Amino acid sequence: MTPTTLTSPALFCPATINALADALVEQGWYVGKNVIDAELCHTLYHELSHLAHHKGLSEAGVGRGSEHHLRKDIRGDAIRWLNRESEAQRQYLAGMAALQQTLNQALFLGLFEHEAHFAHYPPGAFYQRHVDSFRGRANRVVSTVGYLTPNWPVDGGGEMVIYHPENPEQEVARITPEAGTFACFLSATIPHEVLPTRVARASIAGWFRRNASMGGILDPAR
After folding, report:
1. CA-CA distance, 94 to 55, in Å (whole number)?
2. What are the pLDDT digits (tens) for 192-214?
3. Using CA of residue 37, residue 38, residue 39, residue 45, what is the dihedral sign?
């Protein structure tokens, strides 16, 4: 790929951060349109598209560590973990680091780090309803999703559906995966799913984590 030089605007303006923090406290989730800079979205989208077309992604599974399994009946995306290998990745992750600091200061969440991966859903792919962390042993605290696909069609499908934390059958939001939209929610309490997509869908999924290492046993990301 040809290296791209990016300008470096702050990923989140103060008004967005305030609205995001308030929404997490009041309802456990936040969605904002045109949050991610258009130039950054464009560059990340083409980086992910290049990886998808050159076999640079891995099929995603469910579970972690020894309990990790490929389950196409549950999720059908392919991923690649962000590792700061491009300027666009570094800029996106710097924005997440700034958000982490702000959330810690405002909400006292004790967030330790942020992990994130590209997610490519080919046509027909979905991700069944789930939560990102289990109550009582949650190291993933706040989940994040940045959407990258430009010009998302009205009939494209692929929406992320958020359900009520106390009634997982009650839909409370349906998010169109159009470029620039950013969503975040409490990992252990907000059920969500990705509906089947009719066109290729590009995003970055991430999680703010607490450090759950105990007794000298390392609790790594991912």
Report:
1. 27
2. 999 999 999 999 999 999 976 44
3. positive
